[in-house]
Write a structure and sequence with these properties.
The structure holds two protein chains of two kinds.
Chain A (H helix, E strand, L loop, with lengths): L6 H8 L19 E6 L8 E7 L2 E7 L12 H5 L13 E4 L7 E4 L1 H19 L4 E5 L5 H14 L5 E3 L6 H11 L16 E5 L3 H4 L3 H10 L3 E5 L5 H4 L3 E3 L6 H14 L5 H7 E2 L1 H8 L4 H8 L3 H13 L3 E5 L1 H4 L4 H15 L7 E5 L18 E2 L3 E2 L3 H11 L13 H9 L5 E5 L3 H4 L3 H10 L2 E6 L11 E4 L8 E4 L4 E5 L12 H11 L11 H12 L11 H7 L2 E2 L36 E2 L18 E6 L15 H6 L4 E4 L1 H7 L6 E5 L4 E8 L7 E5 L28 E7 L5
Parallel strand pairs in A: 6-7, 6-16, 8-9, 8-12, 9-10, 11-22, 12-13, 16-17, 17-18, 23-27, 24-26
Antiparallel strand pairs in A: 1-2, 2-3, 4-5, 4-18, 14-15, 19-20, 20-21, 23-28, 25-26, 25-28
Helix pairs in contact in A: 3-20, 4-20, 4-21, 5-15, 9-12, 9-13, 9-15, 17-19
Chain B lengths: L1 E4 L9 H6 L12 E4 L8 E4 L8 H4 L27 H5 L6 E3 L4 E3 L5 H4 L6 H5 L5 E4 L1 H7 L3 E9 L2 E12 L39
Parallel strand pairs in B: 1-8
Antiparallel strand pairs in B: 1-6, 2-3, 4-5, 7-8
Classes of the chains: A alpha/beta, B alpha+beta.
Chain lengths: 737, 210
């Protein structure tokens, strides 16, 4: 058990301090030693960027105009990302918890730290069983590291309990895509947005969370597309849309069902496509019969007129692209929302062709690749299923172990903490995950971290979760290693190394291999570089749905990325899925979708209200999300001065009608309370949000963390938490909060 | 290659502001202004770079003759030896572009990334802009990419008519409607019109107004 040290001392030792341009970065006329072509470290778009390197420091950037996705474009996070390097908060050695020093942590020689970690793993596993030691990972890791983490948990630790922060990100979309298409990847490259007649955007704050995608959407509009945006807020992408549907949070399926109802009623459906390429339409058609425009309007809070207009535009379009993101996915019925959206696409028949597309907008740097090769609790590399005997045998063979030695499916990231509560998990290793900020109802998470007998965190900064660690190991920044990631479109790209890790910090995969060696299980963990990991990953993915076997570093470089599936070295990759005569390893030519009959599945998507609806005690809907200048739990972006200055602290957005009712004016301090916690926030009174809903961004820690209030209700299939809806009350603060 | 500003596309992300401060000639200082027009009512933002006037008011009012325009029409930051930091240019510029950097006692402004553009590169802001509200390219490119807008470079401020090197993209088909979030909820809309008559008459094709 380890409680968090005194916060002011902790802050002065480990930050977050704000880094600004200084020294070499500020000098003019510096001739860089190298301009390294790579990609941004933040979101799933993975914009190309060139890092300017001098004296083993990243001192700035140059736009990278040769990468076809962004052609030089960057958001403010990408522009200032170089300031995470040479940062005063950087962990330069291993640390151990030490209550006797200010700040609560003492430096420790790296080898000694590894020995302590190994000894604790052995102690916990021999006392309580292998599954009592859990691993939490992240989708900002390269695919090589993600693959290694899955292998490390199953082969070195022999624990079932590994899961990752993609659990808070793209799992609803992934589960929905697998149910409907049999495969989990964006159906189309973004270039297919450009010629779509209608672009439908549900629950995606594109301008702030995937800023480069804005240009694709608006270029489509220039080309004549109608843009339909469904969101409880007028986000910057909604400001100039052609039709805005201000949906009540948590009611997306009702809208999708209502639109499908009108499509069927008006015969705005592609009967031939439905007959030839899908199954299950009749059941869905029967189900949506009850979703009349009137009922849809009542449930969604969107006017009937707007619903009819949206259905007509969507229904009559010849080409279209539907995009969604966390807005429909972060729900206790997130998978149903995704299925509802896919039903609309399948009924239109507009998929698998040029300018006819569908995609979720993946959030994290490697949101796609990080969910493919085995760091998910129920998955093995190549998108294989850990419960499938054939899949287990295939991977066991690659890993040189017996199939029966591989553990079975573990539990999701939130359930890991519930297992800590029940005393079933006693030890934890985390990397690339800051659950104390990012998980809902996070006061519970903090208590569970304190309940662990041993916790080791690998990170480059001491994030808020790592405050609870017994041992901290100094990991690497993105620019200190090489490897692949798979971006938003399904394009496998290469991150290139720009600088060496400083001090005793080292590349994450080396740390993992050192731990494996420390517990006497180095076999299979003796890679000399990420390229060797990638070669094994290629073999492990071969023949799987997510087939990387034909991808090489050289080919990525030559083609500026390779879209999977890429089953052989002479295969160029697959930018667009589901093309009419395409081949895949499941259908084997029977049809374009990844089921034995080659047909896509309609799925009945029944409406259910959010887990916690409003009532007289908590009469408002709280919804959460991001701002453009911060990223996820803020471990990196809360340390970059110019980004913090852009939006320094969370505020609560509310409509003037609501503010008037509550007696709150713009800038007033408010008290926001849910059944789980409370927070004091300044009000931002804006007419760009529904009057029954308030919005707070989630990037901050401690008393400024809105996840103190959010609910840990999860989708029963994807286990994604319901970040987008819970019930709160808001009052003007008295000043004593 | 020309510079085109299309405020209709601006998403307020500040990538331009952040990138401008990375420019070699004024590192650490951004020369771009980016403001919400009226955040209480809309997320509309407007980026302002120097419009590089043909007859720059800033230079005309400068008592020290410190502000020069290059042969290719780029109005530059005040010459350090001449600038007396009097603020005349800051007050006089109709677009509100020049900034007085008190730290240096020097008027600084956007010089269209002269170090980059003179070497065949695009300006930093227009290169990174994610929505391409700031665009740098040829007139043929912009006409092909933005068929819904006209490029305008004549502006009227009271009795003063100004023509500029930088172009402003203006919708061909009428003004953007103001939309309140409640309007599609079947409740009363709080309408609001903002009219700024600073653009030349005839910028809209009136017959096309929808």
């Amino acid at each position: 058990m380890a409680t968090v040290p005194d916060s002011s001392e902790l802050f002065s030792s480990f930050g977050p301090h704000l880094n600004y341009t200084s020294g070499l970065s500020l000098e003019t006329g510096v001739e860089p030693d190298a301009l390294v072509k790579t990609h941004c470290c933040f979101c799933g778009q993975q914009c190309g960027i060139q890092l300017k390197v001098k004296n083993n420091q990243v001192i700035g950037f140059e736009p990278r105009e040769d990468f076809p996705f962004n052609k030089g474009m960057l958001c403010p996070k990408g522009v200032k990302r170089y300031l995470q390097g040479s940062h005063p908060d950087r962990l330069l050695s291993a640390y151990t918890r030490d209550p006797n020093v200010p700040g609560g942590f003492s430096p420790l020689p790296y080898d000694e730290a590894i020995n302590r970690v190994a000894a604790e793993i052995k102690r916990i596993q021999s006392t309580y069983g292998n599954d009592a030691f859990a691993v939490l990972t992240g989708a900002s890791l390269t695919t090589e590291k993600a693959y290694l983490m899955g292998k490390f948990a199953r082969v070195a630790l022999k624990t079932a309990n590994i899961d990752y922060n993609g659990r808070l990100c793209m799992v609803s979309a992934g589960a929905g895509n697998k149910k409907a298409f049999g495969v989990d990847r964006a159906g189309n490259p973004w270039s297919d947005i450009l010629g779509a007649e209608v672009v439908w955007i549900s629950g995606a704050n594109i301008a702030e969370c995937a800023p480069i995608t804005t240009n694709y959407v608006w270029q489509a509009r220039e080309n004549g597309a109608k843009i339909i945006v469904v969101d409880p807020r007028i986000t910057p992408i909604a400001r100039t849309c052609d039709l805005f549907l201000p949906i009540k949070p948590g009611r997306d399926i009702a809208l999708f069902n209502g639109i499908l109802h009108l499509m069927i009623e008006n015969n705005w459906i592609d009967n031939e496509f439905i007959a030839r390429h899908t199954t299950g339409f009749n059941d869905v058609a029967a189900h949506v019969k009850d979703w009349t425009p009137k009922r849809t309007a009542q449930v969604t809070g969107v006017s009937e007129r707007a619903i009819r207009q949206a259905a007509e535009w969507w229904g009559e379009a010849k080409t279209s692209f539907l995009l969604h993101a966390r807005g429909i996915e972060h729900h206790s019925h997130g998978v149903q929302n995704v299925l509802g959206a896919i039903n609309m696409v399948l009924a239109s028949g507009r998929i698998g062709r040029e300018y006819c597309g569908y995609a979720t907008i993946t959030g994290q740097a490697n949101g796609q690749g990080g969910r493919e090769h085995g760091q998910k609790c129920d998955q093995l590399p190549g998108g294989r299923d850990i419960s499938n005997p054939e899949h287990r045998a295939f991977i066991a063979n690659i890993w040189g172990v017996k199939p029966e030695e591989l553990p079975g499916a573990g539990v999701d990231a939130y359930e890991i903490f519930r297992k800590v509560d029940r005393g079933e998990i006693k030890g934890l290793l985390s990397i690339c995950f800051n659950p104390k900020v990012s998980l809902p109802d996070n006061n519970f998470i903090a208590r569970m971290l304190d309940k662990l007998e041993f916790y080791v965190a690998i990170d480059f900064f001491l994030n808020e979760t790592a405050h609870h660690a017994n041992i901290v190991l100094p990991g690497s920044l993105q620019e200190e290693d090489e490897g692949t990631v798979t971006q938003i479109e399904g394009r496998v790209i290469k991150i290139n190394k720009a600088v060496e890790s400083p001090g005793a910090a080292r590349q994450d995969w080396r740390i993992i291999q050192d731990i494996a060696s420390g517990i006497g299980r180095e076999r299979g963990f003796t890679f000399n570089n990420p390229g060797e990991v990638f070669e094994e990953l290629r073999r492990a993915s071969k023949g799987g749905i997510i087939d990387y076997s034909g991808i090489t570093y050289e080919k990525i470089d030559r083609q500026n990325g390779v879209f999977w599936p890429c089953p052989s070295e002479d295969h160029p990759g697959t930018p667009r899925l589901f093309e009419p005569n395409s081949w895949n390893p499941v259908a084997k030519g029977a049809g374009p979708f990844y089921f034995p009959d080659g047909k896509a599945r309609f799925n009945v998507a029944p409406y259910s209200p959010p887990a916690e609806d409003v009532d007289e005690h908590y009469p408002l809907i709280l919804t959460t999300g991001r701002v453009v200048s911060q990223f996820l739990s803020g471990t990196q972006t809360r340390r970059i001065g110019p980004l913090v200055d852009q939006y320094p602290e969370p505020r609560i957005e509310m409509h003037p009608q609501l503010a008037a009712k509550l007696g709150i004016e713009d800038g007033d301090l408010t008290l926001v309370e849910s059944r789980r916690g409370n927070i004091a926030l300044k009000a931002m009174v804006v007419a760009t949000i529904r009057p029954d809903t308030v919005f707070v961004p989630y990037h901050w820690a401690g008393k400024r963390s809105i996840n103190q209030l959010t609910i840990s209700a999860q989708d029963p299939i994807s286990k994604i938490p319901e970040f987008k809806v819970c019930a709160v009350r808001v009052t003007k603060a008295t000043g004593n909060e | 290659m020309e510079f085109f500003v299309d405020p209709n596309r601006c998403i307020g992300c500040q990538a331009c502001v952040q990138a401008c401060s990375e420019c070699e000639t004024h590192k650490g200082h951004s020369m771009i202004h980016l403001e919400y027009v009226d955040r209480a009512h809309s997320v509309q933002t407007a980026p302002v770079v120097c419009m590089h006037c043909d007859s720059p008011t800033c230079a005309e009012v400068c008592p020290a003759d410190a502000i020069k325009r290059t042969a290719d029409g780029v109005v530059q930051t005040a010459r350090k030896p001449r600038c007396i930091a009097c603020n005349n240019c800051v007050l006089a510029c109709p677009f509100g572009v020049p900034k007085m950097e008190t730290e240096f006692k020097l008027m600084m402004k956007c010089d269209m990334c002269y170090d980059r553009t003179s070497a065949g590169k695009r300006p930093m802001c227009a290169t990174v802009c994610p929505s391409q509200a700031l665009f740098f390219g040829t007139r043929e490119q912009i006409e092909q990419l933005r068929p819904r807008s006209n490029a305008v470079n004549r502006f009227v401020f009271g009795d003063q008519t100004i023509t500029t090197k930088v172009n402003m993209m203006v919708p061909k088909y009428g003004r953007a409607e103001y939309v309140d979030v409640t309007s599609a909820m079947g409740e009363q809309t709080i309408g609001k019109n903002i009219t700024l008559n600073i653009l030349m008459d005839g910028m809209y094709n009136e017959e096309d107004v929808q």
